Amino acid sequence: MLFGEEHVKRYRETGGAEGHDWNNTTVLLLTTIGRKSGQARTTPLIYQRHGDDYVIVASKGGAPDHPLWYLNLEANPNVEVQVMDEVFPAHARVATAAERPELWKLMRATWPAYDEYAEKTSREIPVVVLERR
Q: What family does this belong to (predicted)?
């Protein structure tokens, strides 16, 4: 099973032929700039399309703190996204209060564990919209 750095490596090497379809869902690669290091950081994340946008969830498995990739995009919302063999720049933003219920429903339909993660933490798990630039 692919995970972490190995997932990123195989995804890139195969243009997503290995790594895009994962555990009955779909995965993209999100590259953020480290808010402290200034270095590019790439993370494989479950996603769904919503119109022209891509939606991801900053769950960190229900941990009490946000994932590092989310903190990075808070500091710099200009990111790079890879879906299969297509790589493009995007702007990341947190879903508005009006958008969130629909997008949360979309994401929990593709990964039901998101509801479990939400129950494990007191923080509201951010739903992030990636808008192609």
A: Belongs to the F420H(2)-dependent quinone reductase family.
